[in-house]
Amino acid sequence: MAIYTSLVVPTVILNPSERCLQWSDDGQACITTKAAVHIMTPDPGINFSTPPDIKALRGDEQGEQPLGWFRTMIEPARGQTHIWPSLCQDWGAITLGSLDVSLREVACSPSNLTSRGRCVITILNSNAEVSLWAAAKNHLKGEWTNIQDVTGLLLNTASSEDIIRNILRAQVSSLAWSKQPDYRITPTPVLDSSVLALGNRAGCIEFLRFNRNSNSGGSLSYIHTEPLSDHWVTHLSWAPWITHGVGHCESLLAFSTDKGNVGLVKVTQNLLSTSNVGFVPEYTTSAVFGVQGPICEADKRSVTTLTWVQPPGRNPILVYTKPGLVHLWSWPGSEPTWYGTRVLTFQTQKMSIGSSAIGPVTGVSYVLHRDALILSLFDGSFHAIHNMTMEPTWSPPLAGDILTSAELSQASRALFAKVTPAGISCLDVNRIGGMASYDSQSTLIWIYEALRPVDFGYKHEAQHECMLLTAPFWQLDDETVLHTASEAFSDISCASGGAPIHHLRALMLHLRSNARFASLCPQVLEILSQVPPDQTTTIVLPSWTQGLNDDLRPQLRKSLTTHLSGWPNLLSLRMRLSIADLCWKLCKDPEMQAQCGQVAQGLLAAISHCVLRILVRHLGAIISVITAPDIPFVLREVVQSLLPGSPQDLADEAQALSDTLTASFSIDPAIAALHEHCPACHAEVPLHAITRATCPNGHTWARCTVTSFILSTSKVRTCIGCSRKALLPFTVSDESQLPDAAQSWIVRDLLEAVQRCLFCGNSFVEIV
User: What's the pLDDT score for residue 51?
Assistant: First the structure.
């Protein structure tokens, strides 16, 4: 049985749950332990000079390549930020978790929220405090910093004169961050419509929204308070957003209280256009909140898990568990599928002395191509519910199916034995702290601690060790892998903001298989060659007639960001290029590798033409405010648009832009030649290649992928997906770091507008 990852993590997990291990939209696995959040990023799809922190040296008997991981962590201070007794001496304000502050839960925001195009993370500790964290230079290996005390915000927004109620409202007991809704507007506007929900000890839900700030990283602002009951809100979970029309979305927020009841809050968001004066419309979001009828009445049995799953072709299903039971609920839909509530009883899988069906659920994974739900329990067992779409049941549809609770539990036990050199017996228990799917199919990732319950010896905190495992529980056939490849590039939406390495994680994993890559590669290349129609040809920008004023630059930056990152066909091309590059690297047959290179070159050219068309049309719209320092950059875009192979419409637009520029300015021939000076010997360097520059004395320099200027400074950012480099935005770097020919306000605004790589769509990091 293949094992992709077996990593010892010296830590303690105090709160085993299905939120203990979760994926962020940046493609990072976040593991919540007692004192820190471990952030692990698998290396497939990541290509830059820094190697992964963890790289297994061994292969396995099936020719599967082990996974490497980049690792960092968030380690909040162990002390209390807010001492509740100093604010209120009422007994109800006491938090027992303040005696030894630890981490309880984490919620990851959607990606592309910060000025660096990444996600932020909220952390809830045992003192009922919430903090907001963001990565600084390098989210893979670098430091994450605390950018906001959210509890302080809740205390400052308290409106009641009742002190104890204000304190209880600020004491958070659960949290959940929604995804971005898709308003069906193309290109996708630059707007954050995700919502952070905080359940508290006052029986309310506080709704907050993130505000981007290029200087501090961003902060949360208060939206609304929804009162529910007088009991603690213990769990929250957002359903996927459902779009009912252009600019109109709805979602259900499920909640549970300490009395065991489960209910819903309906959240409706409408997109309102505030201005159509600039290059792209300005939007704002209005939200309406309303409590729905109860799903489960209070029965004094605590809810241990609350989450949603989305089978295709039907309404989402709410999964909530109580000791020994799993409840499934859904509302009626247009399709002939089940609705209402279904209750299934867990059966104990006898694997060890610690086996029990009443332990908490520590992971939930929906397997799309099998229509099955996999759940992991704290005792180390796995359980499978089949036929989720039509009628959920423990029984598999076919006799001999390996996707059963018994088979999965035995496979988990076998993997536990395989990574334990000393061997195991029935006295050894592998207590799972958290589990998630790696590929939404057969490969799972989970973390467990091995122990013997009958051993009453004391083990202090530093002696505890957990094991992180990634392994497939059954083998996928080639048809399923190809279906995964097709689905990865179909129905692409830019609204989610997720990084391409997150969307392509499953496909990249399966293509790394040495045993099947040779047979899959030709068919994958055929899928990659099915290029979507170019939507950027429909871009229409009004000419700017108000001069170079304070309104132009923010509108230009927003328009550039919208068009460079908001077109689905451009995102599809970037994702296809990532897979084509991966195939080229994995291919050992020279002839097949040449075909991979040919497909990649075609995709690269298509991306370049889309980007150039966007830039040329923006330059044409602001031609009236272009100044002399801007001319070198404008001419560079013209030259690139006139290269052989460019679409005729792009070449015509670039030529028209050049003619207008020539008629308006007397251009120095030295500037028109687009020569730069070598940073080493100051010899003239002609613009013969877009990616690299070589002077007559042999000095070679990389070029900025955004502006094509020579990179002669360490103040650069590197794409994690393709290792292309770009100059830092002007808001981060000093203006003196820009080349002389790049001293243009257009260049500065373009560098600030580009938050992700223009060619593969992944995030940048700063290595220096």
Answer: 78
- Nearest CA to 413 out of 394, 426, 395, 400 is that of 426
**CA-CA distance, 609 to 758, in Å (whole number)?**
11
CB atoms near residue 118 (< 10 Å): 26
| Cβ-based neighbour number of residue 399 at 10 Å | 6
First and final C-alpha spacing in the chain: 41
**CA distance linking residue 434 with residue 103, whole number of Å:** 14
- Please, which residues have CB within 8 angstroms of residue 652's CB and are 6 or more apart in sequence? none
Task: State both tokens at 222.
Answer: 């208060």
Enter the DSSP assignment of 474: S
Residue 459 has which token pair? 């083990």
Cα–Cα distance measured from residue 302 to residue 763, given in angstroms and rounded to the nearest whole number = 41
For residue 462, report the phi and psi dihedrals to the nearest 5 degrees. -70, -15
Three-class HEC string of 193-254: CCCEEEEECCCEEEEEEEECCCCCCCEEEEEEEEECCCCCEEEEEECCCEEEECCEEEEEEE
Q: Give buried/exposed letters for 351-380 (b at 16+ CB in 10 A, else e).
A: bbebbbbebbbbbbbbbbebbbbbbbbbbb
Alpha-carbon distance 704 to 710, whole Å? 6
Residues whose CB falls within 8 Å of the CB of residue 585, separated by 6 or more in sequence, listed in order: none
**Burial readout 208-227 (b: 16 or more C-beta within 10 A, e: otherwise):** bbbeeeeeebbbbeeeebbe
C-alpha separations of 562 from 58, 159, 721, 750 in Å: 45, 38, 21, 12
At a CB cut-off of 8 Å and minimum separation 6, what does 648 contact? none
What's the pLDDT score for residue 712? 83
Strand partners, 235: 256
CB 238 within 8 A of CB 289: no
pLDDT of 63: 52
Q: What is the pLDDT of residue 57?
A: 47
- What pLDDT does 399 receive? 82
pLDDT of residue 736: 67
Rg (CA), the chain: 27
Report the b/e string of 414-423 with b at 16+ CB within 10 A: ebbeebeeee
Output the DSSP codes for 631-643: HHHHHHHHHHHTS
Sequence-separated (6 or more) residues with CB below 8 Å from residue 343: 325, 326, 327, 328
User: Which residues of the chain have a pLDDT value below 50?
Assistant: 57-62
Could you give the dihedral angle defined by the CA atoms of residues 434, 414, 477 and 441, in that order, rounded to the nearest 10 degrees? -10
Q: Which residues make Cβ contacts (< 8 Å) with residue 395, sequence separation at least 6?
A: 386
Residues 319-349: b if buried by 16+ CB within 10 A, e if exposed:
bbbbeeebbbbbeeeeeebbeeebebebebb
User: Do residues 52 and 75 make contact, with C-beta atoms less than 8 angstroms apart?
Assistant: no
Farthest CA pair distance, the chain: 88
Give the closest residue to 759 by CA, choosing from 621, 610, 624, 553: 610
Residues paired with 267 in a beta bridge: 251, 289
Q: Write down the residue that tokens 């801007």 correspond to.
A: 630
Q: What is the pLDDT of residue 735?
A: 66
CA dist 433 and 606 (Å) reads 46
Q: What is the pLDDT of residue 58?
A: 46
DSSP H/E element including 454? none
Between CA 240 and CA 250 the distance in angstroms is 9
Is beta strand 317-322 parallel, antiparallel or unpaired with respect to 305-309? Answer: antiparallel
What does residue 703 show for φ and ψ, rounded to 5 degrees? -110, 150
Identify residue 52 by its one-letter amino acid code.
P
